[in-house]
Design goal:
The protein is an alpha/beta fold. It is built from 11 helices and 8 strands. It has one domain: Aldolase class I (TIM Barrel). The chain has an 8-stranded parallel β-barrel with strand order 1-2-3-4-5-6-7-8, surrounded by 8 helices. It is globular and about 75 Å long. Bound molecules: SN-glycerol-3-phosphate (G3P).
Length: 214
């Protein structure tokens, strides 16, 4: 399973890359709005720090405009994946961009039907937002199960990015279902690493080590 960081913050990305577990980064307009540097400069720096794909989101609404915006984003670095919200205009743009070899991450996916259409249009990734479904008392993980099954049935090459991750259990459940990728906020990434019994164990070993004759 690949782990992406859901962040536009350079320090967070640098830190997690240093752990040796970073496979990619996803950004969105909300995450980018928290950073003080210019959007393009920030994305360029993120791409340089990240070993895998970096998602940068298009904000245009018409297919022809989305294509132009996506081409310009793709010129920033070789590892850019353009993020496009699912919809009729987004699907048309995805088809055109796929033909040009530009990787598309189709985002704001909330149904299996949307994921199926995105895969058929040639999206390299789909991003179902599970936390936002859980927020409205829907079952986000059930959506992941369906999409993973449908993609397996037809051997789509499109990869499932589990997005809108809120806690470590989301990551574990996504892994159990065989999702290709989870994109994880920094806070959840640090929670994945820690366990109170590990901390207690280290403390105890260190205390006992002090009694060992050396
Ligand atoms: O990458 C976008 C997605 O992860 C958004 O998460 O927490 O705003 O629903 P959230």
């Amino acid at each position: 399973m690949k782990l992406f960081l859901d962040s536009a913050n350079l320090e967070e990305i640098r830190e997690v890359a240093g752990w040796g577990v970073l496979d990619g980064v996803t950004t969105n307009p909300s995450l980018c709005s928290k950073e003080s540097v210019s959007f393009e400069e920030n994305i360029r720096k993120i791409c340089a720090l990240t070993p895998g794909p970096v998602s940068a989101e298009c904000v245009s609404l018409r297919a022809d405009e989305i294509v132009l915006e996506a081409r310009s984003l793709a010129r920033i670095a070789a590892n850019i994946a353009v993020k496009i919200p699912v919809g009729l205009e987004g699907l048309k743009a995805t088809k055109a961009l796929h033909a040009e070899g530009i990787a598309v991450n189709m985002t704001l996916i909330f149904s299996t039907g949307q994921a199926l259409l995105a895969a058929k249009a040639g999206a390299r990734f789909v991003s179902p937002f599970i936390g936002r479904l859980d927020d409205i008392a829907e079952d986000g993980m059930a959506l992941i199960e369906e999409i993973v099954q449908v993609f397996e049935n037809y051997r789509f090459e499109t990869e499932v990015i589990v997005a809108s991750v809120r806690h470590p259990r989301h990551v574990i459940d996504a892994a159990l279902l065989g999702a290709d990728i989870a994109t994880v906020p920094y806070g959840v990434m640090t929670k994945l690493v820690r366990h109170p019994l590990t901390d207690i164990g280290v403390e105890r070993f260190l205390a006992d080590w002090r009694k060992v004759k050396t």
